Amino acid sequence: MAAYKPVVVQACPKLGERITQDTLYWRGYKTPVQIKEFGAVNKIDFSPVPPYNYAVTASSRIHIYGRYSQEPIKTFSRFRDAAYCATYREDGRLLAAGSEEGSVRLFDISGKAPLRQFEGHAKPVHVVGFLSDKYRIFSGGDDYSSNLWDIPSSTEIVSYSEHTDYVRCGCASKVNADVFITGSYDHTVKLFDARTKSSVMTIEHGHPVESVLLFPSGGLLVSAGGRYVKVWDVLKGGQLLVSLKNHHKTVTCLCLNSSGQRLLSGSLDRHVKIYSTTSYKVVHSFNYATSILSLALSPEDETIVVGMTNGVLNVKHRKPEEKNEKSQKKRQPAYRTYVKGRSYMPKQEDFCVSKPVKRVLRKYDKLLRSFQSSKALDAVLEPPIMLHTPEVTVAVMQELHRRGTLRSALAGRDEKQVNLLLTFVARRVIEPRFTPVLVTVADMITDIYQPVVGQSAVVDKQFLKLKEAIGKEIDYQEELLEVLGMMDTLFATFTKKRDTCLEENKSNGLTEIIETNRNY
Protein backbone atom coordinates (compact mmCIF):
# COMPACT_ATOMS: atom_id res chain seq x y z
CA MET A 1 0.00 0.00 0.00
CA ALA A 2 1.36 3.43 -0.98
CA ALA A 3 2.25 5.85 1.81
CA TYR A 4 -0.22 8.66 2.54
CA LYS A 5 0.73 12.01 1.04
CA PRO A 6 -0.21 15.03 3.19
CA VAL A 7 -2.45 17.76 1.78
CA VAL A 8 -0.45 20.32 -0.19
CA VAL A 9 -1.31 23.79 1.11
CA GLN A 10 -0.85 26.48 -1.51
CA ALA A 11 1.81 28.92 -0.36
CA CYS A 12 1.17 32.59 -1.16
CA PRO A 13 3.96 35.17 -1.05
CA LYS A 14 3.81 37.63 1.84
CA LEU A 15 5.15 41.15 1.92
CA GLY A 16 8.06 41.20 4.32
CA GLU A 17 8.45 43.94 6.88
CA ARG A 18 11.00 46.54 5.92
CA ILE A 19 13.83 46.40 8.43
CA THR A 20 15.77 49.65 8.70
CA GLN A 21 18.40 50.96 11.09
CA ASP A 22 15.69 52.91 12.91
CA THR A 23 13.60 49.76 13.32
CA LEU A 24 16.53 47.90 14.86
CA TYR A 25 17.43 50.86 17.08
CA TRP A 26 13.96 51.51 18.50
CA ARG A 27 13.31 47.81 18.97
CA GLY A 28 16.35 47.65 21.20
CA TYR A 29 14.34 48.49 24.32
CA LYS A 30 13.45 45.97 27.00
CA THR A 31 9.96 44.87 27.96
CA PRO A 32 8.26 47.89 29.57
CA VAL A 33 7.82 48.32 33.31
CA GLN A 34 4.31 49.41 34.37
CA ILE A 35 3.94 51.78 37.34
CA LYS A 36 0.49 52.79 38.60
CA GLU A 37 0.00 56.46 39.56
CA PHE A 38 -2.87 58.09 41.47
CA GLY A 39 -4.34 59.79 38.40
CA ALA A 40 -3.77 60.70 34.76
CA VAL A 41 -0.10 61.54 34.12
CA ASN A 42 -0.10 65.08 32.69
CA LYS A 43 3.68 65.71 32.61
CA ILE A 44 6.99 63.79 32.63
CA ASP A 45 10.30 65.65 32.77
CA PHE A 46 13.85 64.27 33.00
CA SER A 47 16.55 65.94 35.04
CA PRO A 48 19.21 67.37 32.67
CA VAL A 49 22.06 66.16 34.93
CA PRO A 50 23.09 62.63 35.99
CA PRO A 51 21.72 60.30 37.32
CA TYR A 52 18.82 61.54 35.11
CA ASN A 53 15.94 61.10 37.54
CA TYR A 54 12.53 62.05 36.19
CA ALA A 55 9.59 63.92 37.70
CA VAL A 56 6.06 62.59 37.15
CA THR A 57 3.07 64.90 37.72
CA ALA A 58 -0.19 63.07 38.42
CA SER A 59 -3.19 64.05 40.48
CA SER A 60 -2.09 66.20 43.47
CA ARG A 61 1.46 64.80 43.69
CA ILE A 62 4.83 65.04 42.03
CA HIS A 63 6.88 61.85 42.23
CA ILE A 64 10.61 61.72 41.56
CA TYR A 65 11.75 58.36 40.17
CA GLY A 66 15.28 57.05 39.75
CA ARG A 67 16.35 55.67 36.41
CA TYR A 68 15.66 52.03 37.38
CA SER A 69 13.45 52.47 40.45
CA GLN A 70 9.82 51.34 40.40
CA GLU A 71 9.01 53.25 43.58
CA PRO A 72 9.33 57.05 43.94
CA ILE A 73 12.51 58.15 45.68
CA LYS A 74 10.91 61.49 46.61
CA THR A 75 7.40 62.96 46.68
CA PHE A 76 6.10 66.53 46.68
CA SER A 77 2.52 66.53 47.93
CA ARG A 78 1.94 70.05 49.27
CA PHE A 79 -0.92 70.68 46.86
CA ARG A 80 -4.57 71.16 47.83
CA ASP A 81 -5.78 70.09 44.39
CA ALA A 82 -4.23 68.88 41.14
CA ALA A 83 -0.62 69.67 40.26
CA TYR A 84 0.52 70.40 36.71
CA CYS A 85 3.67 70.51 34.60
CA ALA A 86 6.52 69.84 37.06
CA THR A 87 9.67 70.97 35.20
CA TYR A 88 13.37 70.80 36.09
CA ARG A 89 15.79 73.71 35.86
CA GLU A 90 18.88 73.22 33.66
CA ASP A 91 21.10 72.43 36.65
CA GLY A 92 18.61 69.86 38.00
CA ARG A 93 18.48 71.48 41.46
CA LEU A 94 15.11 73.24 41.30
CA LEU A 95 11.66 72.09 40.22
CA ALA A 96 8.73 74.37 39.28
CA ALA A 97 5.08 73.30 39.03
CA GLY A 98 1.66 74.81 38.47
CA SER A 99 -1.49 74.00 40.41
CA GLU A 100 -5.27 73.99 40.25
CA GLU A 101 -5.40 76.88 42.79
CA GLY A 102 -3.66 79.21 40.31
CA SER A 103 -0.26 79.41 42.04
CA VAL A 104 3.22 78.52 40.79
CA ARG A 105 5.45 76.70 43.27
CA LEU A 106 9.20 76.31 43.29
CA PHE A 107 10.80 73.31 45.03
CA ASP A 108 14.34 72.44 45.98
CA ILE A 109 15.09 68.83 45.02
CA SER A 110 16.77 68.22 48.35
CA GLY A 111 13.85 69.58 50.39
CA LYS A 112 10.10 69.06 50.69
CA ALA A 113 8.45 72.43 51.36
CA PRO A 114 8.24 74.93 48.47
CA LEU A 115 10.98 77.59 48.37
CA ARG A 116 8.80 80.12 46.58
CA GLN A 117 5.14 80.49 45.76
CA PHE A 118 4.08 82.90 43.02
CA GLU A 119 0.51 84.24 43.15
CA GLY A 120 -0.99 86.09 40.21
CA HIS A 121 -3.10 83.77 38.10
CA ALA A 122 -6.85 83.77 38.68
CA LYS A 123 -7.36 80.22 37.37
CA PRO A 124 -5.41 76.92 37.20
CA VAL A 125 -1.82 77.10 35.92
CA HIS A 126 -1.06 74.35 33.37
CA VAL A 127 2.25 75.64 31.96
CA VAL A 128 5.46 76.30 33.89
CA GLY A 129 9.06 76.52 32.69
CA PHE A 130 12.44 78.11 33.36
CA LEU A 131 14.10 80.63 31.07
CA SER A 132 17.67 79.73 30.11
CA ASP A 133 19.17 82.35 32.49
CA LYS A 134 17.90 80.11 35.39
CA TYR A 135 16.54 83.08 37.39
CA ARG A 136 13.17 83.60 35.76
CA ILE A 137 10.06 81.45 35.39
CA PHE A 138 7.28 81.75 32.81
CA SER A 139 3.77 80.39 33.35
CA GLY A 140 0.46 80.12 31.51
CA GLY A 141 -3.00 79.47 32.87
CA ASP A 142 -6.69 79.08 32.19
CA ASP A 143 -7.14 82.83 32.77
CA TYR A 144 -5.70 83.32 29.24
CA SER A 145 -2.57 85.03 30.62
CA SER A 146 1.15 84.29 30.33
CA ASN A 147 3.28 85.62 33.18
CA LEU A 148 6.99 86.04 33.82
CA TRP A 149 8.35 85.75 37.39
CA ASP A 150 11.61 86.69 39.08
CA ILE A 151 12.90 83.91 41.36
CA PRO A 152 15.14 85.89 43.80
CA SER A 153 12.51 88.54 44.58
CA SER A 154 9.38 86.33 44.14
CA THR A 155 7.73 89.07 42.08
CA GLU A 156 5.91 89.25 38.78
CA ILE A 157 7.97 90.89 36.05
CA VAL A 158 5.39 91.14 33.28
CA SER A 159 2.02 89.66 32.38
CA TYR A 160 0.76 89.08 28.82
CA SER A 161 -2.97 88.68 28.17
CA GLU A 162 -3.02 88.16 24.42
CA HIS A 163 -4.51 84.67 24.21
CA THR A 164 -8.29 84.35 24.02
CA ASP A 165 -8.53 80.82 25.46
CA TYR A 166 -6.75 78.49 27.89
CA VAL A 167 -2.93 78.48 27.72
CA ARG A 168 -2.00 74.80 27.94
CA CYS A 169 1.61 74.45 26.72
CA GLY A 170 4.86 76.35 26.44
CA CYS A 171 8.65 76.15 26.13
CA ALA A 172 11.67 78.43 26.49
CA SER A 173 14.49 79.14 24.06
CA LYS A 174 17.90 77.74 24.96
CA VAL A 175 19.65 80.27 22.72
CA ASN A 176 18.03 83.50 23.93
CA ALA A 177 17.37 83.95 27.66
CA ASP A 178 14.48 86.38 27.03
CA VAL A 179 12.40 84.31 24.59
CA PHE A 180 9.63 81.88 25.49
CA ILE A 181 6.68 80.43 23.57
CA THR A 182 3.13 79.54 24.62
CA GLY A 183 0.37 77.59 22.88
CA SER A 184 -3.32 78.03 23.53
CA TYR A 185 -6.72 76.52 22.80
CA ASP A 186 -7.42 79.67 20.72
CA HIS A 187 -5.48 77.84 17.91
CA THR A 188 -2.47 80.18 18.15
CA VAL A 189 1.17 79.91 19.19
CA LYS A 190 2.74 83.15 20.45
CA LEU A 191 6.41 84.02 20.82
CA PHE A 192 7.21 86.46 23.62
CA ASP A 193 10.34 88.50 24.36
CA ALA A 194 10.71 89.56 27.99
CA ARG A 195 12.14 92.90 26.83
CA THR A 196 8.89 93.86 25.08
CA LYS A 197 5.37 94.44 26.36
CA SER A 198 3.63 92.31 23.72
CA SER A 199 4.23 89.19 21.67
CA VAL A 200 6.71 89.45 18.80
CA MET A 201 5.21 86.66 16.65
CA THR A 202 1.86 84.87 16.33
CA ILE A 203 1.45 81.58 14.48
CA GLU A 204 -1.95 80.18 13.53
CA HIS A 205 -1.95 76.40 14.06
CA GLY A 206 -5.57 75.82 13.07
CA HIS A 207 -6.52 73.59 16.02
CA PRO A 208 -6.36 73.84 19.84
CA VAL A 209 -2.62 73.64 20.59
CA GLU A 210 -1.72 70.83 23.01
CA SER A 211 2.09 70.95 22.87
CA VAL A 212 4.92 73.11 21.51
CA LEU A 213 8.59 72.31 21.11
CA LEU A 214 11.55 74.47 20.09
CA PHE A 215 14.61 72.90 18.46
CA PRO A 216 17.92 73.41 20.32
CA SER A 217 19.11 75.80 17.58
CA GLY A 218 16.06 78.00 18.16
CA GLY A 219 15.25 78.23 14.47
CA LEU A 220 12.50 75.63 14.16
CA LEU A 221 9.29 75.37 16.16
CA VAL A 222 7.00 72.32 16.35
CA SER A 223 3.35 72.63 17.37
CA ALA A 224 0.84 69.84 17.98
CA GLY A 225 -2.92 70.18 18.02
CA GLY A 226 -5.80 68.17 16.67
CA ARG A 227 -4.42 65.39 14.48
CA TYR A 228 -1.65 67.62 13.13
CA VAL A 229 2.01 68.12 13.95
CA LYS A 230 3.33 71.24 12.21
CA VAL A 231 6.89 72.50 11.83
CA TRP A 232 7.49 76.26 11.51
CA ASP A 233 10.57 78.31 10.57
CA VAL A 234 10.86 81.00 13.24
CA LEU A 235 13.69 82.80 11.44
CA LYS A 236 11.43 83.34 8.42
CA GLY A 237 8.65 84.91 10.44
CA GLY A 238 6.78 81.71 11.27
CA GLN A 239 6.67 80.14 7.80
CA LEU A 240 5.08 76.67 7.68
CA LEU A 241 7.61 74.06 6.55
CA VAL A 242 5.65 70.82 6.85
CA SER A 243 2.33 69.58 8.23
CA LEU A 244 2.20 65.98 9.44
CA LYS A 245 -1.05 64.03 9.79
CA ASN A 246 -0.05 60.53 10.89
CA HIS A 247 -2.26 60.20 13.98
CA HIS A 248 -5.95 59.30 14.07
CA LYS A 249 -6.77 61.32 17.19
CA THR A 250 -5.53 64.41 19.03
CA VAL A 251 -1.75 64.71 19.43
CA THR A 252 -1.03 65.51 23.08
CA CYS A 253 2.77 65.59 23.52
CA LEU A 254 6.06 66.11 21.68
CA CYS A 255 9.65 65.17 22.41
CA LEU A 256 13.09 65.29 20.74
CA ASN A 257 15.88 62.77 21.12
CA SER A 258 19.31 63.82 22.41
CA SER A 259 20.78 64.46 18.93
CA GLY A 260 17.72 66.32 17.65
CA GLN A 261 17.49 64.01 14.63
CA ARG A 262 14.29 62.24 15.72
CA LEU A 263 10.98 63.81 16.74
CA LEU A 264 8.52 61.82 18.87
CA SER A 265 4.79 62.52 19.14
CA GLY A 266 2.22 60.88 21.42
CA SER A 267 -1.52 60.83 20.81
CA LEU A 268 -4.88 59.76 22.17
CA ASP A 269 -4.90 57.05 19.47
CA ARG A 270 -2.46 55.07 21.72
CA HIS A 271 0.51 55.47 19.38
CA VAL A 272 3.90 57.14 19.62
CA LYS A 273 5.22 58.11 16.18
CA ILE A 274 8.91 58.71 15.53
CA TYR A 275 9.83 61.07 12.68
CA SER A 276 13.11 61.83 10.99
CA THR A 277 13.81 65.58 11.27
CA THR A 278 15.41 65.61 7.83
CA SER A 279 12.62 64.01 5.76
CA TYR A 280 9.78 64.25 8.34
CA LYS A 281 8.70 60.71 7.54
CA VAL A 282 7.64 58.15 10.15
CA VAL A 283 10.57 55.80 10.76
CA HIS A 284 9.05 53.80 13.62
CA SER A 285 6.04 53.69 15.95
CA PHE A 286 5.12 52.27 19.35
CA ASN A 287 1.68 51.00 20.33
CA TYR A 288 0.34 51.33 23.89
CA ALA A 289 -2.67 50.06 25.81
CA THR A 290 -4.53 53.36 26.36
CA SER A 291 -4.49 57.00 25.30
CA ILE A 292 -1.22 58.88 25.82
CA LEU A 293 -1.03 62.22 27.66
CA SER A 294 2.70 62.74 28.23
CA LEU A 295 5.99 61.53 26.85
CA ALA A 296 9.67 61.98 27.74
CA LEU A 297 13.01 60.63 26.53
CA SER A 298 16.08 60.59 28.79
CA PRO A 299 19.06 62.83 27.83
CA GLU A 300 21.06 59.79 26.64
CA ASP A 301 18.04 58.14 24.91
CA GLU A 302 18.40 55.27 27.38
CA THR A 303 14.83 55.44 28.73
CA ILE A 304 11.41 56.18 27.21
CA VAL A 305 8.67 57.07 29.68
CA VAL A 306 5.03 57.40 28.60
CA GLY A 307 2.16 58.58 30.80
CA MET A 308 -1.40 57.52 30.03
CA THR A 309 -4.94 58.60 30.85
CA ASN A 310 -5.56 55.63 33.16
CA GLY A 311 -2.68 56.65 35.43
CA VAL A 312 -0.23 54.00 34.19
CA LEU A 313 3.39 54.96 33.68
CA ASN A 314 5.10 52.89 30.98
CA VAL A 315 8.91 52.79 31.29
CA LYS A 316 11.17 51.23 28.66
CA HIS A 317 14.92 50.85 29.19
CA ARG A 318 17.40 50.34 26.42
CA LYS A 319 19.19 46.99 26.29
CA PRO A 320 22.94 47.17 26.98
CA GLU A 321 24.91 46.82 23.74
CA GLU A 322 27.80 44.88 25.33
CA LYS A 323 25.60 41.92 26.22
CA ASN A 324 24.30 41.75 22.67
CA GLU A 325 27.84 41.52 21.32
CA LYS A 326 28.74 38.73 23.74
CA SER A 327 25.61 36.76 22.89
CA GLN A 328 26.36 37.07 19.18
CA LYS A 329 29.89 35.74 19.73
CA LYS A 330 28.47 32.74 21.59
CA ARG A 331 25.99 31.95 18.83
CA GLN A 332 28.46 32.01 15.94
CA PRO A 333 30.28 28.69 16.61
CA ALA A 334 26.97 26.87 17.23
CA TYR A 335 25.56 28.20 13.95
CA ARG A 336 28.67 27.19 11.97
CA THR A 337 28.50 23.71 13.47
CA TYR A 338 24.82 23.42 12.57
CA VAL A 339 25.37 24.46 8.93
CA LYS A 340 28.58 22.47 8.47
CA GLY A 341 28.32 19.84 5.74
CA ARG A 342 25.00 21.04 4.33
CA SER A 343 26.52 22.13 1.03
CA TYR A 344 28.65 18.96 0.62
CA MET A 345 28.04 17.21 -2.70
CA PRO A 346 28.57 13.39 -2.61
CA LYS A 347 31.17 11.97 -5.00
CA GLN A 348 30.68 9.01 -7.30
CA GLU A 349 32.47 6.54 -5.02
CA ASP A 350 30.59 7.68 -1.88
CA PHE A 351 27.91 5.44 -0.39
CA CYS A 352 24.92 7.54 0.72
CA VAL A 353 22.83 6.42 3.68
CA SER A 354 19.43 8.08 3.76
CA LYS A 355 17.98 8.64 7.18
CA PRO A 356 14.22 8.03 7.25
CA VAL A 357 12.35 11.20 8.12
CA LYS A 358 9.37 10.71 10.36
CA ARG A 359 6.48 12.85 9.21
CA VAL A 360 4.21 14.40 11.79
CA LEU A 361 0.74 14.62 10.32
CA ARG A 362 -1.72 17.35 11.13
CA LYS A 363 -5.11 16.49 12.61
CA TYR A 364 -6.91 16.95 9.28
CA ASP A 365 -4.30 14.77 7.52
CA LYS A 366 -4.86 11.95 10.02
CA LEU A 367 -8.62 12.17 9.47
CA LEU A 368 -8.22 12.22 5.69
CA ARG A 369 -5.92 9.20 5.87
CA SER A 370 -8.67 7.30 7.67
CA PHE A 371 -11.29 8.57 5.14
CA GLN A 372 -13.24 10.62 7.71
CA SER A 373 -14.17 13.44 5.33
CA SER A 374 -16.75 15.23 7.49
CA LYS A 375 -14.49 15.29 10.58
CA ALA A 376 -11.54 16.49 8.47
CA LEU A 377 -13.66 19.43 7.27
CA ASP A 378 -14.72 20.14 10.87
CA ALA A 379 -11.04 20.22 11.90
CA VAL A 380 -10.20 23.01 9.43
CA LEU A 381 -13.36 25.00 10.23
CA GLU A 382 -12.10 25.83 13.73
CA PRO A 383 -11.82 29.62 14.24
CA PRO A 384 -7.99 29.80 14.66
CA ILE A 385 -7.44 28.02 11.33
CA MET A 386 -10.20 29.87 9.46
CA LEU A 387 -9.05 33.30 10.61
CA HIS A 388 -5.25 32.99 10.47
CA THR A 389 -4.62 30.26 7.86
CA PRO A 390 -7.63 30.17 5.50
CA GLU A 391 -5.45 28.57 2.82
CA VAL A 392 -5.43 25.35 4.91
CA THR A 393 -9.24 25.23 4.98
CA VAL A 394 -9.45 25.79 1.22
CA ALA A 395 -6.73 23.16 0.54
CA VAL A 396 -8.71 20.51 2.48
CA MET A 397 -11.91 21.45 0.61
CA GLN A 398 -10.02 21.10 -2.68
CA GLU A 399 -8.69 17.68 -1.63
CA LEU A 400 -12.20 16.51 -0.69
CA HIS A 401 -13.51 17.69 -4.05
CA ARG A 402 -10.71 15.80 -5.81
CA ARG A 403 -11.69 12.65 -3.94
CA GLY A 404 -15.37 13.20 -4.74
CA THR A 405 -16.41 13.32 -1.06
CA LEU A 406 -16.95 17.08 -0.68
CA ARG A 407 -20.74 16.90 -1.06
CA SER A 408 -21.07 14.20 1.61
CA ALA A 409 -18.77 16.19 3.95
CA LEU A 410 -20.92 19.31 3.52
CA ALA A 411 -24.25 17.49 4.00
CA GLY A 412 -25.94 16.60 7.28
CA ARG A 413 -24.90 19.68 9.27
CA ASP A 414 -26.87 21.57 11.87
CA GLU A 415 -27.70 25.30 11.91
CA LYS A 416 -24.50 26.34 13.72
CA GLN A 417 -22.19 24.42 11.36
CA VAL A 418 -23.96 25.69 8.22
CA ASN A 419 -23.70 29.25 9.59
CA LEU A 420 -19.93 28.74 10.11
CA LEU A 421 -19.49 27.38 6.58
CA LEU A 422 -21.43 30.20 4.94
CA THR A 423 -19.58 32.84 6.98
CA PHE A 424 -16.23 31.53 5.76
CA VAL A 425 -17.35 31.22 2.13
CA ALA A 426 -18.96 34.70 2.04
CA ARG A 427 -15.82 36.28 3.48
CA ARG A 428 -13.22 34.49 1.34
CA VAL A 429 -14.98 33.84 -1.98
CA ILE A 430 -13.93 37.24 -3.36
CA GLU A 431 -10.21 36.50 -2.87
CA PRO A 432 -8.77 35.48 -6.27
CA ARG A 433 -6.61 32.69 -4.83
CA PHE A 434 -9.66 31.01 -3.22
CA THR A 435 -12.41 31.83 -5.74
CA PRO A 436 -12.23 28.66 -7.97
CA VAL A 437 -12.62 26.29 -5.00
CA LEU A 438 -15.10 28.33 -2.95
CA VAL A 439 -17.44 28.93 -5.89
CA THR A 440 -17.80 25.14 -6.18
CA VAL A 441 -18.35 24.88 -2.40
CA ALA A 442 -20.99 27.64 -2.52
CA ASP A 443 -22.83 25.84 -5.33
CA MET A 444 -22.89 22.57 -3.38
CA ILE A 445 -24.08 24.26 -0.16
CA THR A 446 -26.87 25.99 -2.07
CA ASP A 447 -27.99 22.73 -3.69
CA ILE A 448 -27.86 20.72 -0.45
CA TYR A 449 -29.60 23.22 1.86
CA GLN A 450 -32.04 24.81 -0.59
CA PRO A 451 -35.01 22.81 0.80
CA VAL A 452 -34.48 24.21 4.32
CA VAL A 453 -34.24 27.87 3.28
CA GLY A 454 -36.65 29.95 5.33
CA GLN A 455 -36.54 27.71 8.40
CA SER A 456 -33.61 29.48 10.08
CA ALA A 457 -33.18 33.25 10.22
CA VAL A 458 -29.44 32.89 10.90
CA VAL A 459 -28.81 30.72 7.83
CA ASP A 460 -30.99 32.93 5.65
CA LYS A 461 -28.98 35.96 6.73
CA GLN A 462 -25.73 34.26 5.73
CA PHE A 463 -27.17 33.30 2.32
CA LEU A 464 -28.09 36.97 1.76
CA LYS A 465 -24.55 38.05 2.74
CA LEU A 466 -23.11 35.53 0.26
CA LYS A 467 -25.40 36.84 -2.46
CA GLU A 468 -24.42 40.44 -1.68
CA ALA A 469 -20.67 39.62 -1.71
CA ILE A 470 -20.91 37.83 -5.06
CA GLY A 471 -23.05 40.65 -6.51
CA LYS A 472 -20.50 43.29 -5.49
CA GLU A 473 -17.66 41.23 -6.94
CA ILE A 474 -19.53 40.88 -10.26
CA ASP A 475 -20.04 44.66 -10.35
CA TYR A 476 -16.31 45.22 -9.70
CA GLN A 477 -15.41 42.77 -12.47
CA GLU A 478 -17.72 44.54 -14.92
CA GLU A 479 -16.16 47.92 -14.04
CA LEU A 480 -12.68 46.45 -14.49
CA LEU A 481 -13.63 45.07 -17.90
CA GLU A 482 -14.87 48.53 -18.90
CA VAL A 483 -11.58 50.08 -17.78
CA LEU A 484 -9.64 47.40 -19.69
CA GLY A 485 -11.67 48.21 -22.80
CA MET A 486 -10.84 51.90 -22.45
CA MET A 487 -7.15 51.13 -21.99
CA ASP A 488 -7.13 48.82 -25.03
CA THR A 489 -8.65 51.63 -27.12
CA LEU A 490 -6.00 54.08 -25.90
CA PHE A 491 -3.17 51.65 -26.58
CA ALA A 492 -4.53 50.92 -30.05
CA THR A 493 -4.69 54.67 -30.79
CA PHE A 494 -1.10 55.18 -29.63
CA THR A 495 0.07 52.25 -31.78
CA LYS A 496 -1.64 53.66 -34.90
CA LYS A 497 -0.12 57.10 -34.34
CA ARG A 498 3.31 55.58 -33.87
CA ASP A 499 3.03 53.55 -37.10
CA THR A 500 1.88 56.63 -39.01
CA CYS A 501 4.83 58.66 -37.69
CA LEU A 502 7.29 55.91 -38.67
CA GLU A 503 5.85 55.75 -42.22
CA GLU A 504 6.08 59.54 -42.59
CA ASN A 505 9.69 59.52 -41.38
CA LYS A 506 10.57 56.75 -43.84
CA SER A 507 8.91 58.59 -46.76
CA ASN A 508 10.66 61.84 -45.78
CA GLY A 509 13.97 60.02 -45.68
CA LEU A 510 13.45 58.54 -49.19
CA THR A 511 12.55 61.90 -50.70
CA GLU A 512 15.63 63.48 -49.13
CA ILE A 513 17.86 60.73 -50.58
CA ILE A 514 16.35 61.17 -54.09
CA GLU A 515 16.83 64.95 -53.96
CA THR A 516 20.48 64.63 -52.88
CA ASN A 517 21.15 62.17 -55.73
CA ARG A 518 19.65 64.59 -58.25
CA ASN A 519 21.82 67.41 -56.97
CA TYR A 520 24.92 65.27 -57.46
Automatic annotation (TrEMBL):
Function recorded in the entry: Ribosome biogenesis factor. Involved in nucleolar processing of pre-18S ribosomal RNA. Required for optimal pre-ribosomal RNA transcription by RNA polymerase I. Part of the small subunit (SSU) processome, first precursor of the small eukaryotic ribosomal subunit. During the assembly of the SSU processome in the nucleolus, many ribosome biogenesis factors, an RNA chaperone and ribosomal proteins associate with the nascent pre-rRNA and work in concert to generate RNA folding, modifications, rearrangements and cleavage as well as targeted degradation of pre-ribosomal RNA by the RNA exosome.
Domain U3 small nucleolar RNA-associated protein 15 C-terminal: 344-490
Classification via Pfam families: UTP15_C, WD40
Keywords: Nucleus, Repeat, rRNA processing, WD repeat
Organism of origin: Erpornis zantholeuca
Repeat region (WD), residues: 118-159, 244-285
Listed GO biological process terms: positive regulation of transcription by RNA polymerase I; rRNA processing
Keyword Nucleus carried by entry: yes
Domain of life: Eukaryota
Subcellular location: Nucleus, Nucleolus
Keyword Repeat recorded: yes
Gene Ontology CC annotations of this record: nucleolus
Protein name as it appears in the record: U3 small nucleolar RNA-associated protein 15 homolog
CDD domains: WD40 (cd00200)
PROSITE patterns per the UniProt record, alphabetical: WD_REPEATS_1, WD_REPEATS_2, WD_REPEATS_REGION
